[in-house]
Amino acid sequence: MTGHDNIALISASYDAFRRGDLDAALAFFHPDIEWVHPDGMSDHDLGGVERGLPAVKAFMARARSLFAEVGMRPDTFFAEGDQVVVTGVNHMRAAATGREADITVVHHWRIRDGKAVRFEDLHDTAAIRALLEPVDETPPETASGDEEAAPAGEKAVSGGAEAEAVSRGEERVEPWPVIRTGFRFWESRVLMSAIELGLFEALADGPRSVDRIVAELGLHERGVRPFLDALTGLGMLAREDGGAYGLTPVSARFLTDAQGTNVAGLPRAASKLWWESWKGLTEMLRTGRPQNEANAGDDPFEALYADPERVRAFHAAMAGGATGAALALARDLDWDGVRTVADIGAAGGAVLRALLTAHPHLTGVGFDLPQVRPHFEQAAREAGLAGRMRFEGGSFFTDDLPGADRIVLGHVLCDWDAETKRDLLAKAFKALPDGGEVVVYDLMTDPGRTGGGDDLFGHLINLHMMLESPGGHGYRPADAAVWLREAGFGRVSVRPLSGPEWLAVGVKE
Q1: Short-list 208, 216, 200, 209, CA closest to 249
Q2: Which of 428, 202, 425, 464 has its CA nearest to residue 317?
Q3: What is the CATH number that goes with domain 3-132?
Q4: pLDDT by 10-residue block (mean), the chain, 509 residues
Q5: Cβ-count burial 48-62 (b if 16+ within 10 Å, e if not)
Q6: Which CATH class is domain 183-254?
């Protein structure tokens, strides 16, 4: 079997476990599989080596008696020969204590004749023991003698169903997570108004008092102070002891033009281009249809490029959305042996500008629809890179991709269905020389997760693609690895890149 086949096999076993289909999961294992867990869990009868499917089933039964919840979330798959290494997080909740945590794990698999013959689970056993084992929670001795009775009002507040729940050891719950989530659009609007007013640019050369901000931006004094305080609470402004407001490191870098990394175009586009389609989320969930021009069968990109104002907003959004990944690509990838780079779906050329600025030996080509040329070439001139980055117009549906030592597909695959994703990777393979690389970055996520932060943003991006395109959808890091193998790439690696971004690299051997 190929590395691609081995990754697909192991990925399928994880999917079966996640569905709760134990028989389907075990069907991928050899009858004499060797099952290895750290000895540090032996006293809980969960350590050492088990051999054969009956022993593995017995091990799993013991695990289920100790844990009310076990959910493996694989992130990265590496394949070499008959081996697959998987990194990820195992979410575990102990049955006896109710304590839960995400445990970082590394799984090492060996495959033979299409079956897993050996599995080894590597993890911090102390973290799991902390879930299982009781903690001495004996309260300190209370003072003897007369004690003041609690005020009657306090007794009333703490009584009833809430007090009974606490007495049973249940977690106290509040309504605020629901309320705050329902009003997140307030936070978005505060940020958008600050961008529209030019507040961050006005503060780029130093803090201002409230009166000075009112005067310089032509504002009415009513509402400005809570507006500035809200931005402070969001981490976009910092309030000094004297009452003046200034930029924070994040707003100074990413909401002004001072360092060439302004991402304000992305929230601006969210407000101007995508608000209406997101109002149709309920309808999309009922019908499965996108909620823009594509709903009527039109090509959303043709409609976009027919409107110059929308094109400008879109390119500003693409530049802002690519900033984190572009900086990470320039910083984290080895570019010494690379002379040429092609950015597919280049829009205004933000990624090439970052790469060529950081690595002066590089030359680049941006590939996109012909209508993009003026925007790309203007950006190249403004960056002083017109001699090193050129534009090539075309459609990646009908035309070959430009050749280069390294081809970048950033925020491209998520726009299309799985078949188109595979076709684009096959075209990249064809365009690369031997030893060349394709670099895919996207907001990948695992649909089995339900966590917040970066992972939540990945789920929201998945919904966004479904609202904006007829076939677009998010995908997992494991999917990217499988598609790269299918396209012919010999060495494949997948890892986190920046925030919710993931990086998948395939080498043509």
Answers
A1: 200
A2: 464
A3: 3.10.450.50
A4: 76 79 85 90 84 89 83 83 89 82 91 92 88 61 44 43 54 71 84 93 94 95 90 89 89 84 76 78 85 61 64 62 79 92 90 92 94 87 92 93 96 88 96 96 65 61 78 84 93 82 91
A5: eebeebeebeebbee
A6: mainly alpha
